[in-house]
Amino acid sequence: MKKYLRKGITIYVALVMFLMSAITVHAENSNASAGMMVKEYSGEDFSRVVASPRGQLISSVQLELVDEGFRTVSIYSEVLCHEEMKKIKMSVTLQKSASKGWTDVNRKEFTWTKENHPDDYLSMATISYRIGSLSAGTYRLKGSYSVFELDGSLQEFRTVTTPGLEIK
């Protein structure tokens, strides 16, 4: 009887440990200082933040870091606006955890203007790219978004940061 009980417990513990590695953690918090709702998602190979500032110009922003394996990460960033913009600026910084905080590893800036896209309805911007040859450690993304109204009378700025993601 004890033999079957031990086997049953062992199988149960193994099953729970297997399922724990496949569970996605979801945390929702109110970022009162920036006046927006932020949802953070973390998994074994990804880290994502979705923010809904519901500001006058910016509707939502999304920032995602994915471990592609072989010390390569893919990066995705998006900003959606309530209306057409004159200019959208986006800055994405890959940071690595260090003993004294976070250090910048890579930074890219992107700008979309109505002048350069006269036939497009400029109300959103997305970017996607990969970075390879990273050293092992914990990484995160910091995204900054600036949008400027068509008549130039109003602008809005938001910053979000993903949870850390361990790269092995």
How many alpha or pi helices? 1
Strand content: over 45%
Q: Give the overall shape.
A: elongated
Number of separate domains: 1
Helical content class? 10-25%
Quick summary of this structure?
This protein has a single domain (25-167), classed as Immunoglobulin-like (Sandwich). The protein contains 1 helix and 11 strands, in the order αβββββββββββ.
Structure commentary:
By secondary structure, the protein is mainly beta. It has a single domain, classed as Immunoglobulins (Immunoglobulin-like), CATH 2.60.40.10. The protein is built from one helix and eleven strands, in the order αβββββββββββ. The longest helix is centred in the first third of the chain and has 21 residues, at 2-22.
Comma- or semicolon-separated keywords:
168 residues, mainly beta, Immunoglobulin-like, five-stranded antiparallel beta sheet, elongated
